[in-house]
Amino acid sequence: MIRNSLLHIFLVFILYSNIQAQEALLSKQDAVTLALENNFGIKVARNEAAIAGNNKGVLNSGYLPTVTANAGANYNRDDATIEFPGQLGNDNNPRPDVDIYKAEAQRYNSAVNVNYTLFDGLGRYYNYKRLKEQYELSELQARETIENTLLQLFSVYFEVARLSENKKVLQQALEISIQRITRAEYAFEYGQNTKLDILNAQVDVTNDSINLLNTQQQLANTKRDLNVVMNQDLNSTFEVDTLVQFIPKIRLEELVGQVEQNNVAILQTERNLTINAYDIKVDQAGYLPTVGLTGTYGWNLNQSAASAFFPGTNNETWNFGLGASLTWNLFDGGGTTVRVKNSKIAYENQELLLEQVALEVARDIANALAIYDNRLNVFLIQEQNVLTNQNNFERSKEQFQLGRITSIEFRQAQINLLNAQTNKNLAKYDAKLAELQLLQLTGQLLNVEL
Prior knowledge:
450 residues, single chain, 10 helices, Outer membrane efflux proteins (OEP), alpha+beta
C-alpha cells in the first residue's frame, strides 16, 4: 500500500504540475508579427529586394554623366657640366666649362573631364526599364518567401496547438484513471472486487502517464521549433490560441476567381516575360550608333630651371575643351544578330513557361479545393464523433459505477473517447492548414485575417 501511495503522489504531481502551469498567450497575429520581423529567411529576402531597389535607381541607369578629376606634379633636379671642346672665347682662350648645380624644374597639372553618352541606341532606356521590372520581380520573390515562411509558421503553430489540446485530453484521462485506482482499492478493501481490477487500473494509469509525458516532450520540442521560425529564445515558453475559424465558402470562391491576378508564381513568370522583352530591345540597340559628348577643363604650370643657353621660365596655362563623338559598329561579326535571335527564343520559352505555370496553378487550386473540402468534412464528422463517444463514455461511466460493466469495457469507452478527441484535434488543424495552402495559391495569404 505504501508503494501504491507513493505512486499516487507521483502521478498526482505529474498531473497537476501540468495543469497549473500558466504561460503567456502567443496569439496567431503575435506569431506572424515576430516571424515577419525576425525570421532569417525573410530578412535575407528583404535585403535582396533592397539590392534590386538600389539597382533600379537613377544612379545605376547610365543616364548620368561621368566626371573624373586628375592632378599631377613632377619635380626634377639636374646637376650638369657642359663642355665646349675646340671653342674659343672672346679672349681667344679656350671656352671654359659651365657647371649647372641644382637645376630644378617643376610641373603641375590638374583637369576635370566630363563624359556623357547622348544616345546609345536606346540600350540604357530599355535596360533602365528592365531593372525596374527586376525590382518588381525581387519584391514578388520576397513575398513568396514570406508566404512560405508563414505556412511553415502555421504548420508548427498548429502542431503546438494540437499537442496542447491532446495534452489536456491526456490529463483528463490520467485523472480519471487515478480516480479508478482509488475506487478499485476501496472496493477491494470492502470485498466488492478482486485484485485484478486494481492491477488493470494501475496498468491504465501507467499507460496514460507515459502518453502524457511523451506528449509533453513533443510539445516542448515543437515549441522550440516555433521559436526557431520566429527567431526567439529557444527556451521561451508560451501558450497558443487553439480557436480556429474557417473562411466562408463563398469568400473562398471569390478569391479563387482572382487567381490569375494574385498568384505569386504567375506574377513572377509574367515579370520574367517582360524582362525578356526588354532584353530583346537592349540587344537590338547594338544595331544603332552611339553619340557621346566630352568636356575638359584643366590647369598646367611648368617651371623650368635656367640652362647654359636660356634663362629659367614659368609657364601657366588654363584650357577648356568640348568634343563630340559618334561610334557606329557597322558590322561586329554577327554577334549582335545572334544575341537578338537568342533573346527572342528566350522570350518564346518564357511564354511557354507562363502557359505551363498557369495550367499547374489551376491544377493546384483544384486539388487544394478538393483537399480542403475533404478535410473540412472529416473535421465535421470528427466533431460529431466526439459528441457520440462523449455520450457513450458518460453512460459507460454510470454503468461502471453501478457495477453493470467491467473495468475493461469502461476503459474501452475511455479509449474510444480519447481517440475521437485527438482525431478531432488533428482534423481541425489539418483543415485549417489546407485552407491556408489554398489561400497561398490564390495570392491572398497575406491579405486575410487568420
